[in-house]
Amino acid sequence: MSGSGRAPRFYFSLRSPYSWLAYRELLERHPDVAGAVEWRPFFEPDGTSERLLAELGGSFPYTAMSRAKHLYVLQDVRRLTAARGIAFRWPVDRDPVWEVPHLAYLRALRGGLGPQFVAAAYRARWEQGRDICDRTVIAGIGAELGLDPAELAGASDDPELRRQGALLLKDICDDGVFGVPFFVQGFNRFWGLDRLPDFVAHLRARAGGDGALPPPAAPAVGLGARAVDDGHAGGCG
């Protein structure tokens, strides 16, 4: 697991509505924290990524989502967005392969546009209700950002990005991440949208003085389709 000397981490998923809401709150309310943490994508592996992860000695934490929990998430997210005055649209995922958007993020990061890609992908999924596992959607985001559309849409076919994705999945295992959003600082873990204020307070207390947070020494992410329970804590932790 992460030692106390490592930069704090924010594990996010483009799939998760709770990650989307945490992302918004980080940028709107705590921009210094957003700039001080490493951003780590969390995604459910397909067969290829699962094999690569197993070769690294990891195993992704799968849990099937019950119908009752699925219905609860639908209700809960509608309640949370209404309380925040946020308009959103539920996307429809058809045979999702989550490497398509999440490895595209790594490709965008390589081009210096990682944060812009996250913003565009979240906007496409949660504001426009689009399928971000559709390569044409990812290609459109590439064109919007000035990145090569074919390279972005085909990121999951890139062996090097696949390797980086497997390393990130191994970090998920090593950091004890079991759902999103998930925040890590040293040996301290905070799970769920409602734990974001506690994570922020923890980082500020560690910073001392005026609570100002330094940016990470490295770029804001490290290298490193099935029905599953994303471990959404949402407001219930």
UniProtKB/TrEMBL annotation:
Keyword Isomerase carried by entry: yes
EC number, UniProt record: 5.99.1.4
Catalytic reaction equation(s): 2-hydroxychromene-2-carboxylate = (3E)-4-(2-hydroxyphenyl)-2-oxobut-3-enoate
UniProt GO MF annotations: 2-hydroxychromene-2-carboxylate isomerase activity; oxidoreductase activity
Recorded superkingdom: Bacteria
Record's keyword terms, sorted: Isomerase
Keyword DNA damage appears in the UniProt entry: no
Pfam families the UniProt entry points to: DSBA (PF01323)
Active site: S16
Coiled-coil blocks: none
UniProt-recorded name of the protein: 2-hydroxychromene-2-carboxylate isomerase
Originating organism: Kitasatospora xanthocidica
Biological classification of the source: Bacteria, Bacillati, Actinomycetota, Actinomycetes, Kitasatosporales
